[in-house]
Amino acid sequence: MIRAIFQTKLWNIMGIHLRAGAQLVQLVSRFRCKVIVTKEGRSADGRSLIQLLTLGAFYGSVLEFSAEGDDAPQAIEAIRGLLNEWKEQNGGSRDAGASDGRK
Hints:
By secondary structure, this protein is α+β, with helices and mostly antiparallel strands. It has a single domain, classed as 2-Layer Sandwich (Histidine-containing Protein, Chain: A), CATH 3.30.1340.10. The chain is built from three helices and five strands; from the N terminus they run βαββαβαβ. Helix 1 packs antiparallel against helix 3. The radius of gyration is 12 Å and the shape is globular.
């Protein structure tokens, strides 16, 4: 089983709100692997909008994205791309992939 993990600060000014959460769920749903999003010890299934919203992920929150399955690296890269899009929409200049670890 392939596992990919990365941590980043959330640079989306509005955090993971309804629209951003729906974008993330839609993206994650394209992959077969299981994706878990963790903030301060609380975890959410990347396919559950309600669980993502209950994380309370606001601007500057540190999130960990963990994917497990055959297409885990591709899912993590796609998530990183989405987070970078959010950052660019907010005029940010930091890379959403500041820390990356693969197992």
